Amino acid sequence: MSAAAAAGWWAGHRIRVLLPALFLAPVLFFVLASPRSSPSFFAPPVSREHLPSGSRVIWAQRRAVEWRPCGWWQRKAMPAPGSRNGYIRIDCYGGLNQLRRDLCDGIAVARLLNATMVLPKFEVAAYWNESSGFADVFDVDYFIEQTRGYVEVVKDMPEEIALKEPFKVDCRKRKGHFDYVESVLPTLLEHRYISLTPAVSQRRDRNPSYAKASYCQGCYNALRLNKKVEAKAIELLQVIPKPFLSLHLRFEPDMVAYTRCAYNGLSSDSLGAIEAARGEDRKVLIGDDARLWRNRGKCPLTPGETAFILQALGIPTETNIYLAAGDGLMELEGFTSVYKNMYTKSSLLAHEDFERMHGNTKAALDYYVSVNSDAYVATFFGNMDKMVTAMRTMQGLQKTLVLSRRAFANYTAAGLAGDQLSKAMWDAHRADYVMGRGSALPEHCFCEFKL
Ligand SMILES: *[C@@H]1O[C@H](CO)[C@@H](O)[C@H](O)[C@H]1NC(C)=O
Ligand SMILES: *[C@@H]1O[C@H](CO)[C@@H](O)[C@H](O)[C@H]1NC(C)=O
Ligand SMILES: *[C@@H]1O[C@H](CO)[C@@H](O)[C@H](O)[C@H]1NC(C)=O
To answer: Pfam family of this protein, just one (predicted)?
Structure first.
């Protein structure tokens, strides 16, 4: 096998290699960790004080708690739907990771209503100026195969139903908890075929277990990129120098405008871009409001702040960093002046290739690389970060951390700077990492394991 082919194989088979390893790990631990003989690969140094200087890194801290997919939903023994109530198409809006979030929620709703799912519709045209549908990003046959026994998914409907347009049910504007069975089932029974956009903030933990299991299986075990997109992603993964850390920065004009935070020392270019993105109802917060908001961790970290925290976490400045982000980042010099080995998809892929790519394909590449990187650090906890941390957890990849904007704001507000701030950042993130909080998965699909 050539090196390139080997790398491709590695990328494609990693999950299959890692999953058994994940389940073997506890067994190995008991076999190998007999008194005083713990092998070095299994016993990372517990405290940084005992490490030779220079090797202090957050990932070497021994975890007390680790998240793993729970066993209950991976055993296929869910009750079959009690009845067949009709057909549902899930209509999803926004960028890739938001589409995916809506799809995941929609899978649970379809099962909740005992409806048969047809392939979801991705309403991306307005957003990305492209018409990429579900099949343009994801592997359709794999999705159908993997959701079997959880929720019924079909490519084709009976002709008399396929001819009509579905009746539209849009739940995006709904606030608070509401009952899909109560409010949507009558419409489904009446029209037999509906399109549904799920509500954004519903409590998923109140669903019956068969709907929860469908959510977990459909979202975390049934979505993989189609062959064409995956091939491109593997090509990208191969050319990134290893080992590498994937970093999701989120310091873009729209993000900064949206969060209404003020920053000192931005360039006039950045300030101009932020003002241009600012709507009437998004005025900068000032005074106490601004301070409280920032202390609640609501303000995105700048590239410079991110570099400071990564250094505080002992991540060497020569680390290869893949920047999983769009092209609109501001103040990037604040990061690249410290971490110089930085790579982006536009720097690694052939120019023509890159120009031809759609927004969703680009987002899919970042997603894939981040799920398969040695380490992943998020500076925000948006839709992409939630999906990536969850998928990494599925694969047993533990070097995953969401930086604490709250801790950074808190300590800088308290006047800490330099070494003191660095020490405070280390302590806060070390505690998060050890307790599995940094990438905590607030969903019923994942369970905490005490180590
Ligand atoms: C769906 O099927 C389950 C059994 O799997 C049943 O308990 C439930 O009442 C059914 N719900 C609807 C809305 O038909
Ligand atoms: C959208 O895409 C079409 C076809 O690729 C192109 O001709 C058009 O200029 C694009 N529109 C915008 C607003 O980017
Ligand atoms: C700031 O940090 C202090 C000390 O850890 C803690 O007691 C306090 O609750 C924190 N405040 C916020 C807003 O996070």
So the answer is: O-FucT
DSSP label at residue 286: -
Distance between CA atoms of 34 and 20, rounded to whole angstroms? 22
Domain that holds residue 153: 87-220
Residue of 211, 183, 187, 212 whose CA lies nearest to 199: 183
Phi, psi of 39 (to 5 degrees): -70, 150
Q: How far is the CA of 112 from the centre of ligand 1 (A)?
A: 7
Ligand 2 centroid distance, CA of 325 (Å): 22
Give a yes or no: residue 207 inside a domain.
yes
Atom in ligand 1 nearest the alpha carbon of residue 78: 5
Residue 351 covered by a domain: yes
Task: List % helix, strand, coil for the chain (3-state, nearest 5).
Answer: 50, 10, 40
Cβ count within 10 A of residue 283: 10
For residue 399, give the nearest of 18, 27, 60, 52 by alpha carbon: 60
Q: What is the mean pLDDT of residues 233-247?
A: 97
Q: Say if residue 180 is in the same domain as residue 242.
A: no
Structural domain includes residue 382: yes
Task: Say yes or no: CB of residue 81 within 6 Å of ligand 1.
Answer: yes
- State whether the beta carbon of 346 lies less than 6 angstroms from ligand 3: no
Predicted confidence band of residue 124 (pLDDT cuts 50, 70, 90): low
Please work out whether the CB of residue 295 comes within 6 Å of at least one atom of ligand 3.
Answer: yes
Question: Does pLDDT of 31 surpass 70?
Answer: no
**Contact 69/216 with Cβ under 8 angstroms?**
yes
pLDDT, average across residues 291-306: 96
Which ligand 3 atom minimizes the distance to the CA of 295? 13
Instruction: State whether 170 and 243 are in the same domain.
Output: no
**Dihedral sign, CA of 349, 351, 352, 356?**
positive
Q: Does the C-beta of 114 come closer than 6 Å to ligand 1?
A: yes
pLDDT in tens, 87-122: 999 999 888 888 899 999 999 999 999 999 999 988
Report the amino acid identity of residue 119.
Answer: L
Whether residue 324 contacts residue 370, with contact meaning beta carbons closer than 8 Å, is answered with: yes
**Residue 57 alpha carbon to ligand 3 centre in Å:** 24
Ligand 1 in contact with 189 (CB < 6 A)? no
Closest C-alpha residue for ligand 1 atom 6: 82
Average pLDDT, the chain: 85
394 and 361 share a domain? yes
Structure confidence at residue 111 (pLDDT): 96
Token code pair at residue 41: 């690969």
Of the listed ligands, the closest to the CA of 292 is 3
285 CA to centre of ligand 3 in angstroms: 21
Is 277 inside a domain boundary? no
Count of structural domains within the chain: 2
Number of neighbours of residue 22 by Cβ within 10 angstroms: 18
